Amino acid sequence: MKTKLFAIGCAAAQLATSMAVHAQAAAPQSGESAAAPKESVLEEIVVTAERRRTSLQRTPIAATVMTGESLAASGVTTVDQLQFISPAATVNNFGQGIDFNIRGIGKAEHNTQTTTGVITYRDGVATFPGYFTAEPYYDIARVEILRGPQGTFVGQNATGGAVFVTSNDPIINGGHHGYVQGHVGNYDEFGAQGALNLPVSDTFAARVAFNGLKRDSLYDIEGPYTGDDGVQTGSFRLGMLWEPSEKLSVLLKADYSYLDLSGYPADPVNATNDPFEITANADIHALDRFGRSVLRIDYEFDNGTTLRSVSGYQKGRTEYRADLDGTSIGNNIFGDAVDEEIYSQEINLISTDTGRFNWILGAYYQHDEYEFPPGEFYIGIPTGQYLLEGTNPKETTAFFGQIGFHVTQSVELQVGARYSDSSTENHIFVNQYGLPLTQDQRAEYSNLSGKVALNWTVDEHNFLYAFVATGFRPGGLNVPVGLGIPAPFDEEKVTNYEIGWKAGWLDGNLRTQLNAFYNEYENFQVTVGYPDIPVFGFELNNPNATEIYGLEAQIEAVFGQFSMDAGVGWMKSELGQFFAVDPRVPSFGACDPATGPASPSCIDLEGNDQTYAPDFTFNLGAQYEFTFAGGDILTPRVNYGHVSEQWATLFQNEARGDRIEARNIFNAQIAWRHGDLVTTLYGTNLTDQQYVGALNSGLRFMGPPRQFGLRLLKAF
Question: Where would I find the TonB-dependent receptor plug domain in this sequence (predicted)?
Answer without folding.
Answer: 56-162
